[in-house]
Design brief:
The complex is a heterotrimer of chains A (about 100), B (about 475) and C (about 500). Chain A is mainly alpha-helical. Helices cover about 35% and strands about 5% of the residues of chain A. Chain A has a domain at about 1-40: Orthogonal Bundle (Histone, subunit A). A two-stranded antiparallel ribbon of chain A has the order 1-2. In chain A, a hairpin with a 3-residue loop joins strand 1 and strand 2 (about 95). The longest helix of chain A is centred in the first third of the chain and has 18 residues, at about 20-40. The radius of gyration of chain A is 23 Å and the shape is flat. The relative contact order of chain A is 0.08. The model of chain A has no long low-confidence stretch (mean pLDDT about 90). Chain B is an alpha+beta fold and about 475 residues long. Chain B has 3 domains: about 5-300, no CATH class; about 310-420, no CATH class; about 425-485, Arc Repressor Mutant, subunit A (Orthogonal Bundle). In chain B, helix 12 (about 425-440) crosses helix 14 (about 455-465) and helix 12 (about 425-440) crosses helix 15 (about 470-485). Chain B is elongated and about 95 Å long. Chain B starts with a strand and ends with a helix. Chain C has about 500 residues and is an alpha/beta fold. Chain C has a domain at about 5-260 and about 440-485: Amidase signature (AS) domain (Amidase signature (AS) enzymes, Alpha-Beta Complex). In chain C, helix 5 (about 160-165) packs parallel to helix 6 (about 185-190) and helix 9 (about 305-325) packs across helix 11 (about 355-370). The chains are: A mainly alpha (about 100), B alpha+beta (about 475), C alpha/beta (about 500). Chains in contact: A-B, A-C, B-C. At the A-C interface, helix 1, helix 2 and strand 2 of A face helix 9, helix 10, helix 11 and helix 12 of C.
Chain lengths: ~100, ~475, ~500
């Protein structure tokens, strides 16, 4: 698989990472290199194989669903929530550039 | 009665599917222990999980699962014993993790059905496509600051059920009836409070049109976040007309997301979303598959309340009410409960009249809900009993009703205090009738010469003589006999 | 008195109990060593005040007979674990200055057991790397040098700061995390023990996520016994992590001396490809012989999908990472680069905040999940992953443990040209399969190559059977008599 510059631009926009136009070509080449190496997987026969999701099969060790009780155990910590904010706003908000709908 | 849009080239019908986001009634969030209450100060109900802090992990709220299953059962839907939480990836300022935890190709609830009660008394089945659990986003506040948008994450992580209908709806009225019925079922189940003003129920409408008789599905537009039943109906009506105009002018409708502007009654394209979405769904590796067994479902099934359709059928059968009257009473669970409180041990049709006409009239006039009614179901039930057993005339009953509304006293106390007991003792009425006849020979003569309309005057005189306590029906009968 | 920093955790534990020295003295010795070894760049942040304060508290508990399992033991914490009030960066510029208002479950457990935090250890940015060269806060140098040479070597990665600090006796042990080999490979490069337990043994709560279905914390120590002591404290069920196993914690230390008599050790043929480094192959053979000598039988096994493990990993891990790293958007914490619009702010913040390798992996991950490619890449990889897990399941029907080399080579030069990402990825060829299968794996230092650089052997067992893994590791350690730096033992 060889990626073109337009595809790299599309992915970079989806991922919200600015890639300068001058770097598109090199990035495309590098990603293409990795993808063509990855593509050896297509040779593996996976018919009738269920995809594994997650690194565990918990069924083998526990049948009990691990759900939380519906209790309030958190919240009421606005200061801590905002403590690392780059642009906190009066009244206890996070600030971002104005969004126009 | 089908809904048709008359175009220049012919008749068009509208095809509508609705996606409803219903907030699950729960104390805490879907994946954290922060509270879900409405109206708290900014960022006061936020856990580090809801704020998407590094290393934070979601843990599923078991009650939300139960609520989703309960709702699925209420919609007579297929419950999936294994479902998967997936991440829907996109960036937005009030979406702290950069993804929404939702369900994608394996939702917790599959296909179901809702029966609509149309205003003309007919009913119609509408398919439910699916119901899935997902977390809500936070809130962007645009009017706090000149150059900034302010972010409040209190809603972030609040549990929602997304309930998707099949494209089975064919008119704005049906869409309205669907929302009303869905809301009613959710409230009966206790899984959503149905409060559209507070955003506990939000609706997106998928609208397309096609020439009458055709079975094709044309390009649809999604109208986002229409937040009242009336606006949903208006938005659909407007959007359908717009589609007809576009097709008839030789154009093509673009598949897009549109916003409804209630002030101008129009929809417009959401230009800020012009960049095509690619949500890159994949199973959330932080969560295990959501699994439960038949016994779990059966336990929930056993606790389901009687739902509107069943209640309506029972009201018709047990109380002899018309389908229309029963439908009105069961639409709101509290009304149905109130009615049954009134009708207990007395004349059900009379009870329905007093509830649907007098009580609802009073509540409307005062602008209060039935839970704030100044008259309890028990007291209104007693009043109806007093009418049914002829203790009170209906005129007296109206007076007593006004007094009950004014001070909340029970009818027996009012009747005793005011000595309002209706006279049904024939001898007491007999005496009054004899007295009136004796005192008014001229009127008696007129009556006997054929002026029968004087009967009203005679009854009035007897009532006056008894301070209004005589049973008017009995007065009439006795007068007729004696004047006879 | 011997140099306190060269003691093992087990020895220090016993001597602290006998009051032969104080926890504060032990901590001061390590702080002094850290000061002297600054040029290794093993720590991003040192926390001497916290260390002294906790050491004093440990001494008080030792006095009152309330000592925990790691009372007074000075440890380094990989800077991927969130530590309350102490900067946590994942070695990324985007998190520079971030002070978490919470403590990760694993570091909290270590703290509750009485251990002393010396500082936050350097790593590859967001744990993405095998050399510790991608850290925003600079490369880490291995304390090892090739015989007769002065050029610097990589400590491996991503837990490079952890490996270097433990190897150089700056810390008695360190936490690591392993997603595709990030504990085992640097342990091998630096001549120490590194244990990646079964996925689900240690809580991931509070650890900056790289690839959620693979990430697992584990101990890095100079001896197998120390790793057993540390792991016992680190693991256990955590209701805050849905993927943490509700299992009781075995006493790993208690089984160490049980030996391997009667155990069946599997030797997978796929781990001996043509062109395998001769010294690595020879050490592997030596390891096989040691286990036989100790009474184990060895059998040849096959793990047929081994070749597919790396490409599978390089789909699954970047895919999960692309989503996990979406939260670094300049809104709630970390660095921000302003922009006129929200999207511009995002794009500039993330372009400036992430390093080259992290960006590369986010882009790959975004691509393999995107519409039209999901089935061909991500879904395919999850299916191959299932086959890899099945290979191990079938193998463990025939054997109790598997022995392989940890890495295909010894440590390489810190300034070697690294312009081919795929060549770098090949470092993890022997460690990634176990990560994908979620099984436990450990690296034990087993010998030196002709340049005098450490080589490690990897021991794998089935899920939740760390006890057998530790028994095998102990036999290898006893046989190898590996020459630790500074004569530590």
């Amino acid at each position: 698989m060889s990626l073109d510059k337009a595809t790299v631009r599309r992915i970079a926009t989806l991922a919200r990472i600015e890639v300068p136009d001058a770097d598109l070509e090199a990035t495309a080449a590098q990603l293409s290199g990795i993808l063509s190496w990855i593509e050896q997987l297509s040779e593996v026969d996976t018919s009738n194989v269920a995809p594994m999701s997650g690194g565990i099969d918990m069924e083998s060790i526990s049948t009990k669903p691990r759900w939380r009780e519906d209790k309030v155990t958190d919240g009421g910590q606005t200061e801590k929530v905002l403590a690392n904010a780059p642009d906190p706003q009066d009244g206890g908000f996070f600030g971002v550039p104005k969004v126009v709908e | 009665m089908s809904y048709i849009i008359k175009g220049d080239t012919g008749d068009w019908e509208v095809v509508i599917g609705l996606e409803v986001h219903a907030q699950v009634i729960s104390k805490s969030k879907l994946f954290s222990g922060a509270p879900t209450e409405f109206g708290a100060g900014p960022n006061t109900q936020v856990s580090f999980i809801d704020a998407g802090m590094p290393g934070m992990l979601p843990v599923l709220n078991g009650h939300a699962v139960e609520q989703a299953v309960r709702t699925g059962l209420g919609l007579k839907a297929k419950i999936n014993k294994r479902s998967i939480f997936a991440r829907k990836n996109y960036f937005y300022a009030d979406m702290p993790q950069g993804y929404q935890i939702s369900q994608y190709d394996m939702p917790i609830v599959g296909e179901g059905t809702i029966v609509l009660d149309m205003p003309d008394g007919t009913s119609r089945s509408v398919g439910i496509e699916r119901l899935h659990l997902e977390q809500d986003a936070g809130k962007s506040v645009h009017d706090q600051h000149a150059t900034k948008t302010c972010i409040d994450l209190n809603r972030s992580g609040v549990p929602l059920m997304e309930i998707v209908s099949k494209p089975d709806l064919r008119s704005p009225e049906e869409a309205g009836a669907y929302l009303k019925k869905l809301r009613s079922i959710l409230v009966y189940l206790g899984t959503c409070d149905g409060n559209m003003e507070e955003g506990s129920m939000r609706c997106d409408a998928n609208v397309s049109v096609r020439p009458v008789g055709s079975t094709e599905l044309r390009t649809r537009c999604e109208i986002k976040n229409v937040n009242s039943m009336r606006f949903v109906m208006q938005a659909i009506e407007h959007e359908a007309k717009r589609h007809v105009e576009v097709w008839e002018s030789g154009g093509a409708v673009d598949q897009e997301t549109r916003l409804y502007d209630a002030n101008r009654n129009e929809t417009r394209s959401m230009r800020s979303k012009e960049f095509a979405h690619d949500y890159r769904y994949f199973p959330d590796p932080d969560l295990l598959p959501l699994e439960f067994d038949d016994a779990y479902i059966a336990k929930i099934q056993a606790t389901l309340p009687e739902l509107p359709d069943d209640k309506k059928a029972r009201f018709i059968k047990d109380y002899g009410l018309s389908a229309y009257d029963a439908g009105v009473l069961v639409a709101e669970q509290e009304n149905a409960v109130y009615f049954e409180g009134v009708a207990k041990g007395t004349d059900a049709k009379l009870a329905n009249n007093w509830v649907s006409t007098n009580l609802f009239g009073l509540l409307n006039a005062r602008g209060v809900s039935i839970s704030e009614s100044p008259i309890s179901a028990k007291n209104l039930g007693r009043l109806v009993q007093l009418i049914a057993d002829n203790t009170l005339s209906s005129r007296m009953a109206k007076e007593v009703f006004e007094m009950m509304a004014a001070d909340g006293k029970d009818p027996d106390t009012i009747v005793t205090e005011r000595g309002m007991k209706q006279i049904t003792d024939t001898s007491a009425i007999d005496a009054a009738v004899d007295q009136i006849i004796a005192a008014n020979p001229d009127k008696v003569a007129e009556y006997n010469s054929g002026k029968v309309q004087l009967m009203g005057w005679f009854v009035g005189q007897v009532m006056k003589a008894t301070q209004g306590k005589a049973n008017p029906g009995m007065c009439g009968e006795l007068l007729k006999k004696k004047l006879g | 008195m011997t140099d306190l920093t060269s003691l093992t955790i087990a020895a220090a534990r016993d001597q602290l109990a006998k009051k032969e020295f104080t926890a504060l003295e032990l901590t001061e010795a390590h702080l002094a060593a850290m000061d002297k070894a600054k040029d290794l760049n093993a720590f991003i942040v040192t926390t001497p005040e916290i260390a002294r304060e906790r050491a004093k508290a440990a001494d008080a508990r030792l006095q009152s007979g309330k000592a925990g399992a790691l009372e007074g033991i000075p440890l380094g914490i990989k800077d991927l674990f969130c530590t309350e009030g102490v900067q946590t960066t994942a070695a990324s510029h985007i998190l520079e200055g971030f002070k978490p208002p919470y403590e990760s479950t694993v570091s909290q457990k270590l703290r509750d057991a009485g251990s002393v935090m010396l500082g936050k250890l350097n790593l590859d940015e967001f744990a993405m790397g095998s050399s510790n060269m991608t850290s925003y806060f600079g490369k880490v140098k291995s304390p090892w040098k090739a015989k007769g040479r002065s050029d610097d070597l990589v400590p491996g990665g991503s837990s490079g700061g952890s490996a270097a600090s433990v190897s150089a006796c700056l810390a008695m042990g360190a936490t690591g995390t392993d997603t595709g080999g990030s504990i085992r490979q640097p342990a091998a490069f630096c001549g120490i023990v590194g244990v990646k337990p079964t996925y689900g043994r240690c809580s991931r709560w509070g650890i900056v996520a790289f690839a959620s279905s693979l990430d697992q914390a584990g101990p890095m120590t100079r001896t197998v016994r120390d790793a057993a002591i540390m792991l016992k404290v680190m693991c256990g069920h955590d209701p805050k992590d849905s993927t943490s196993a509700p299992l009781s914690v075995p006493d790993f230390e208690a089984v160490l001396k049980q030996g391997v008599k009667g155990l069946r050790i599997g030797i997978p043929k796929e781990y001996r490809p043509d062109g395998l480094n001769a010294e690595v192959a020879a050490l592997w053979d030596q390891g096989i012989q040691w286990l036989r000598d100790a009474g184990a039988t060895t059998i040849d096994i096959s793990l047929p999908h081994t070749k597919s493990a790396l490409p599978t990993y390089y789909i699954v891990a970047p895919a999960e990472a692309s989503s996990n790293l979406a939260r670094y958007d300049g809104v709630r914490f970390g660095q921000r680069v302003e922009g006129k619009t929200l999207d511009e702010m995002y794009a500039k913040t993330r372009a400036a905040g992430f390093g080259t390798e992290v960006k590369r992996r986010i882009l790959i991950g975004t691509y393999v999940l995107s519409a039209g490619y999901y089935d061909a890449y991500y879904l395919k990889a999850q299916k191959v992953r299932a086959l890899i897990a099945r290979d191990f399941n079938e193998a463990f029907e025939k054997c109790d443990a598997i022995l392989t080399p940890t890495a295909p080579t010894a440590a390489f030069g810190l300034n070697d040209k690294q312009d081919d990402p795929v060549a770098m990825y090949l470092n993890d060829v022997f460690t990634v399969p176990a990560s994908l299968a979620g099984i436990p794996g450990a690296s034990v230092p087993a010998g030196l190559n002709k340049d005098g650089l450490p080589l490690g052997l990897q021991v794998l067992t089935k899920r939740w059977d760390e006890e057998t893994m530790f028994r095998v590791c102990q036999v290898l350690e006893d046989a190898a008599q590996f020459p630790l730096l500074k004569g530590a033992r």
